[in-house]
User: Which sequence fits this backbone?
C-alpha cells in the first residue's frame, strides 16, 4: 500500500527492490532520461523550445536512417501514429494490402477498416512472418495500380516475428509498383536494423515508449517525399493528425501547431544523446546479443519459440510457447506477484499459450540474466520441470563470449 | 548554453534564478507533481495501473462537477480532445452553432469545418463574449431541430473572455432544444466555476497542462449520458479518439485500449490530491483573487483590459492592451530576455496589440506580485511611462485584505 | 563521456542499462526515496521541519529496537558517528577493549587511538569473529573496572563476519562489569537482527548509505540512558559531535543545533516508511534469504567464503576468496568495465585475495541472480574454470523454495 | 497534510504555489542541480567518482580565488567546517583573536573555547563590523607572536554585516605578524568578493547550502600552504575532520578516506557549472544588485537596517529592524502562514527586534520583488503603517536601470 500525494492508497505498488520490467513496452527508461524530464513546464513559444525542437527533428531522422524524410513528433501513442500515417496518405475507399500475423497487425488492420479503406488482408498463421509471395502475386495482378499502399508491421510484438522489409521493397521494385510502403516500426526502430531511405519506405512510425526508452507520449511519424506529395491529395478526414499543420509551423520556425510536452522533448533529447553516444549500430548489435541469449535460454528450458522460423526471429521480443497443461497467464501473474518481474501476456489467439519476454530498450546483459533466472523460477512455480540455472547458463555462455567492453570505460 | 545529455548544446535555457511562467499554459507544475512523475515505466497490464486508473476516473469527475458523466483520459492535447468531443457525437454534415470570439474558438471552428460539419459561426468582436442573443434567435427559428450541437469555449485564452455557460443552458431549455452542449473547458476547468451536471453540459473537455498543472499529454473528455447515447449513432470517422474502445476496456476492467503514460497517471493522481487537499472551491476562489489583483494592476498602469465588459473577465488569463506606439511582442521578448519572465503573446487579430498574463494553476500571491513587478519594469523598458510599483501596490492592497491563511499552517 | 551541466565531460559514467550495485555500501536507493529527496531546500526553522524531525526521531528508534534510547541524526558519515559515540562517552586515557577482525574494525581502532584512548586491542585472524573468550578473560581480571568500554563492530564489512552481540552482553553480565557497550552497526542495522535494549547496547550507530538505502550523509547514533549519563562527565573534546547541543535543541522543540539536510530528512522518512511497510522482521528475513543464496552460489563455484565459520556468516556482505593465481582486483575491474557490475574490492590484508558481494538494502531475488550470473561471467573472464549457471542454479533452487509472495500483491 | 511514503502525515507542508525561500540559508537549489542529484548511489571506489572528484577539487578552488590552496570537501555542515579549520591548524591553549559581532561569530567563538583555545574576544555592538583597530593594537603589542590565529567571520549572517578582509590582511602585514588568518566564508563565498590568495587567507570555509545553492552536506575547507604546514604540528585532537587522511587519499588518487555523498558530488558539479556559465564576477554583481534593491526597499518602508554603516552592508542578507511595538518573530510567522514566504528570524540579542531577508544563491530580480511585495503585506498585517508597493517601487526603479540581459538569451 503506497500513498502518492495525500490519502489515496495505491495497491500493488511497492515490493522490495526494483521492478524487473520485461514487457515489450513500455520499457525501462534510463535514469539519465528520467532526470532530463524531471522539470517544470516552459513557454513553448519562447525561443528555447523551437531551438530544441530543431535539433530533435534533425537527429530523429538518424534513427530512421533517412536524410530525405520529414519527421513529425505527434503528442500521441503508436495507435495515433498509425492513424496519422494512413489518413495523411490515403483516401477513403483506397485499396491497401495489409498483413495479418498477430495482435498488433490485427489492430492496425481494424483501424484501416474503420478508416474506410478497402483492406486486402493477407493472413499468416500466428508465429509466421508476412506472406510476401502473396504480395508478389497481388502486385503482379495489379497492372492497373489499384493498390495504393502496402501496410506492414516490421516487428509483430505479439508473436516476436520480424518481417523482411528489404524483400518487400524488392518485390515492389520488381513489379515497378507505385504503391506507398507504410511501415509500423513501433517495436523495431532504434533496436532492429531499419533503413528508411535504402528500403524506400514511405511512412515509418514508432512510439516513444519502445526502443527509444521514454515514457509513452510521442508518436514519431517519418514521411518520405513521395508520402508528403501523397498527403496533398489524400482525402481522409484529419485535423489533429494532419501533417499540413505541422509543415506550416515548420516553415514559420515555431514548429508546434499545438502544445507539446516540454518534458518529453527534453527526454527525447537525452534519449537520442544516449543512443548516439552508444552508437546506433552498437545498440542494434546489443539487441541482437540479448535476443540471441534469450532464445538460447528458451531452448535450454526445452520450450518452443512462438516464431516458427529463424529468419523471423525478433531481436526485441521473444514469445515463448508453454506446454498445454500450463496457462501462460499464470506465469505472468506469478512473476509479478512473487518476483517483481513483469512479463508480457499472450494476446488473443495465443492468450494462455505464450508469455513474452521483451528485451528492448536500455538494457544490459545482467538485467537479462536476472530476468531469465526469474523466468526459470516461475516456470518451476507453475509446475514445469525446468532445470534451474539451465537457461541462464546457456545465455551466459553466449554472452560471456560476445559482450564487448563498455566503450566509455575502456 | 546548456548541455542536456552529451554534446548537444541548448541555447537560451539557463538564467540565474527561476523562470517566472505566466503564459496561460502550459503552467507551473507543483514540485509534488514533478516528484510523483519522476519514475520508470511500468507494465500497464499489471493489476497496479488499472487500480490507479480506477481512482483517477472516479476522482476526475469531481473537477467537472459531474456524477453522471463518463470521463476519458486521452493521451493527447486539447486539440485532440476537441476532435474526440466532436467526432464521437456528430456526423458529417451536422449543423452546429459555434461562437467565434478569439484565436482558440477560431481554431476549434476551423477543426469543426475540416471535420465536415456544417458550422453556423456566430462571431463577436475579439474582447467580447459569445453572442448569446444570436443563439436564442437561432434556436427560436430552429423548430426542426436541425442544430445538432452548440459548441462554445468556456474561456477564450486569447482575449481573456469567459462565457456564461449557465445562460447557454437557460436558452437551450427555454426553447426546449435537444442540441448537444459541447464545451471547451481547456483554460477554465479546475480554475473557474464549472458545473457539468447542473448546466447540462454534454461534453466537456480540458488539457492536463492547464489548471490541472501537469505536463501536456492528457486530453480529458467527459461525456454525459446523452452524449454517450449520441456516440452510438455518430457517423464521424474515428479510431484513436473513439470512446467505444475505451468503454470496452472499462468494462473489462483493464481500462486502456492502448498504452497510457504511466508518469502522467501518477502525476494526475498527485495533482488531484493537491486540488482536493486545497479544496476545489478554494482553488477557484484563489484564481478569482489573483485575477482580481491582476486587473487592479492593469488599471493602475493606465492600460486597458482586452476584455470589454466585467461580466466576461477571465479569472485565468488577462489580455492587456498596449498603446498603439508599442509592439506587444516586444514586451514578451524583453520580459523573457531580461527578467526570465514568460508572458503570452497576442495572437492573430490582436497580435502586437495585447500581451497576456496567465494566472492559472498552482500559483500564489507572491508569485503574482513578482510577475506584476516584472511587467512594470518591462513596460518601462519598452517606453511606456508606467509608475514602477503602482500595479504591485494596487494588487497588494487587494491581496493583503483578502488572502486567507494557508489551511495546513493554521 | 557524459556532460552533467555544461562543458565538464564526465568519463566512465554511461553504459547501456542499469548499474548493478553490489558493493557493501553505498547501496541502491529505492526510487520512492530518490523521489522523496528530489526537492528544494526549506527553512529548517519553520514549524514543518521540527514536525518532520519529531516523527523521524521517534521512528528511527524502531530500527535499533530500543524504546529507552535517544537517537541523534548527525550530518556526517559512519566515521563521524564513530567519533560521536566515543567522544561523548569517554575521556582521554580511558581504557577500552576493542576487537580487530578486519579493515573497518581496524579503522575504528585507529580512530580510538588517535582520540587518545588506551585501547586494548583483541585481534583475530581476518575471517574470524571477535575473540570473546579474550573478552571474558579481560573482564574477569578487571576487578577494578579500569575497562570503561567495549567497542565492537557488529558486522565487519571487509570480511563478511558478524559478531555475536548477545554473547558480549552475556559476558558483561556474567562479570557484572559496568563497561559501556559500544557497537558499530554500520553494515548491520536494518538488515541483521539487532536489539539495542535487549542486548544492553549503550551506543549503537549506523550510516544512512547502508541498509537504510539512502545517500551518504546521516550518521545515526543511538544512546542508552547509561550512555547519556556518561556523556555528562566524559572529557573528550567535542563540539560538532556533541550530544549536549542536540539535547538542548530537543528540549526547545527545534531539534537542530545547525542546519540539517532537508532532502535527507524527507528521504529518511520515505526509507523508514518503506521499511515499516515491508516489516522490519521481513526485511531481516529477506537479507538472510539473499545471503544464503549467495553463499550457496559461492559453494557451487567451488570458491571459499572468507568467513571461516558458519556462525559468523554475514547476511549483508559475502567476501569470496579467489584462487592464488587470480588477482581479485581484476575481477572487480572487469565486472565494472564489461558488465556494469559494481563489486567490492578486497581491502588491506585481503587485498587481491577476496572480492565482495554486498547484498544489503533494498534488493530482491532477481537483482541478486543478475549479479551472480555476472560474477560467473567475470570469473570465467579472468580464467577461473567456473561452470556458467552453476551459482545461479544453486541460488535459484534455494530462492524458489523460500521466496514469499510480495505482501502488497497477494 | 501531506503523506510522504506511506501513512505518515506531514503537517504544514503544502500551500498553493511555491515556497518563497528568503532565509539566509539553506537557499534555493536550481532545478538543474536538483536534477543532477536525483540519482542512485554509486560505488565510490570505481574510476568514475575519483575522476569526478578531481574536477571538483580543481574547480572549487576558483570560488575561493586561489591557485595555491588545497580544498577539502567534508561531508559535514559549516559547524563541522569550522572545527576542521581550527583543529587542523591549532593546538590546545593557542591564543587566537576572534571577533564577536553577531550570533554566528558567537557560535564560532563558543566552539573555539570548547576546543580549548585561548580566545581573545574582540566584541562589537551587534550591527557593527569587527573592530579592526583593536586588532591592530593587539598585533602591535604582540611582539612575541603569542597570537597564533585571527578568526573572523566574513559575513555575519545574523546582522547582515560584512567585514573587510583586505584590511585584516593589511594590518597583519603592517605588523609583519605570522598569525594564521582563518575566515568563515559561509554566507559570503560565491556571493561576495572573496580573494583567498590576494588577501593571504590561510583557511577559508563555506557550506554547500549557502551561495553554492546546494543541499546541506558539504563543508568546504580550503587551506593555504602555510595552513597545511601548520597542520603538521597542530596538536588538537581530530580524526573525522583531519586533513591528513584526505591528503593521503589525494596522493593515492582515490580521494576519499570515507564514503562521500555521490549525489552531492554530482550536485556540486552542476552548481559549479552554473556558476561558471554565469561567470563568478557576474554572480557577485547580481548579489550586489539584489542587495542594493533590498536596502532601497527597506529605506522606502521607513525601516532601519540593522547594519550600522554602509561599509558593512552585506550583499547576502539584510537584517531589518522593526519598531519596538512589533515582535519581528510575528512577521516571520505570519509570512510563512499566510504568504508561503520564509524569512529569517532575529537571533539572540536581536531576537524579536529584526527579521532577515536572505538574498543569496540562485535568485533573480522578480523573485526578489515577489519577496519584497510579500514583506510589505506582512508588515501591514502586523500593524506597521507601510505604504504597499513603496519598497517594490524603490527596488524596481533600481533594478530596471541595472539589470543586464540574460547572457544566454541575447
Assistant:
Amino acid at each position: 500500500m503506497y500513498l502518492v500525494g495525500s490519502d489515496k492508497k495505491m495497491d500493488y505498488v511497492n515490493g522490495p527492490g526494483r521492478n524487473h520490467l520485461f514487457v515489450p513496452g513500455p520499457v525501462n527508461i534510463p535514469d539519465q532520461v528520467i532526470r532530463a524530464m524531471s522539470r517544470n513546464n516552459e513557454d513553448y513559444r519562447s525561443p528555447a523550445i523551437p531551438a530544441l525542437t530543431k535539433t530533435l527533428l534533425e537527429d530523429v531522422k538518424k534513427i530512421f536512417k533517412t536524410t530525405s524524410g520529414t519527421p513529425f513528433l505527434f503528442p500521441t501513442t503508436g495507435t495515433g501514429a498509425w492513424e496519422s500515417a494512413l489518413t495523411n496518405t490515403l483516401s477513403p475507399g483506397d485499396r491497401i494490402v495489409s498483413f495479418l500475423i498477430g495482435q498488433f497487425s490485427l489492430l492496425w488492420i481494424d483501424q484501416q477498416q474503420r478508416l474506410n479503406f478497402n483492406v486486402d488482408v493477407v493472413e499468416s498463421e500466428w508465429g509466421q512472418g508476412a506472406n510476401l509471395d502473396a504480395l508478389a502475386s497481388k502486385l503482379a495482378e495489379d497492372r492497373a495500380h489499384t493498390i495504393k499502399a502496402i501496410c506492414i508491421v516490421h516487428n509483430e510484438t505479439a508473436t516476436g516475428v520480424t518481417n523482411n522489409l528489404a524483400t518487400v521493397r524488392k518485390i515492389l521494385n520488381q513489379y515497378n509498383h507505385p504503391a506507398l510502403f507504410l511501415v509500423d516500426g513501433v517495436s523495431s526502430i532504434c533496436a532492429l536494423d531499419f533503413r528508411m531511405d535504402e528500403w524506400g519506405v514511405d511512412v515509418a512510425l514508432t512510439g516513444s515508449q519502445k526502443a527509444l526508452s521514454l515514457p509513452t507520449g510521442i508518436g514519431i511519424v517519418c514521411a518520405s517525399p513521395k508520402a508528403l506529395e501523397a498527403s496533398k491529395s489524400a482525402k481522409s478526414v484529419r485535423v489533429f493528425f494532419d501533417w499540413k499543420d505541422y509543415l506550416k509551423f515548420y516553415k514559420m520556425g515555431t514548429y508546434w501547431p499545438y502544445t507539446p510536452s516540454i518534458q518529453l522533448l527534453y527526454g527525447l533529447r537525452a534519449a537520442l544523446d544516449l543512443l548516439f553516444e552508444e552508437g546506433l549500430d552498437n545498440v542494434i548489435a546489443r539487441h541482437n546479443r540479448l535476443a540471441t541469449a534469450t532464445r538460447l535460454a528458451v531452448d535450454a528450458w526445452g520450450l518452443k519459440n512462438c516464431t516458427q522460423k529463424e529468419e523471423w526471429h525478433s531481436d526485441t521480443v521473444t514469445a515463448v510457447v508453454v506446454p498445454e497443461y500450463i496457462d501462460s497467464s499464470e506465469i505472468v501473474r506469478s512473476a509479478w506477484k512473487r518476483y517483481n518481474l513483469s512479463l508480457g501476456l499472450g494476446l488473443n489467439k495465443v492468450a494462455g499459450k505464450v508469455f513474452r519476454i521483451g528485451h528492448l530498450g536500455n538494457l544490459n546483459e545482467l538485467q537479462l540474466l536476472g530476468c531469465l533466472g526469474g523466468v526459470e523460477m516461475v516456470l518451476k512455480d507453475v509446475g514445469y520441470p525446468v532445470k534451474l540455472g539451465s537457461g541462464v547458463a546457456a545465455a551466459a555462455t553466449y554472452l560471456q563470449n560476445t559482450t564487448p567492453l563498455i566503450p566509455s570505460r575502456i
About this structure: The domain at 31-275 of chain A is CATH 3.40.640.10 (Aspartate Aminotransferase; domain 2).
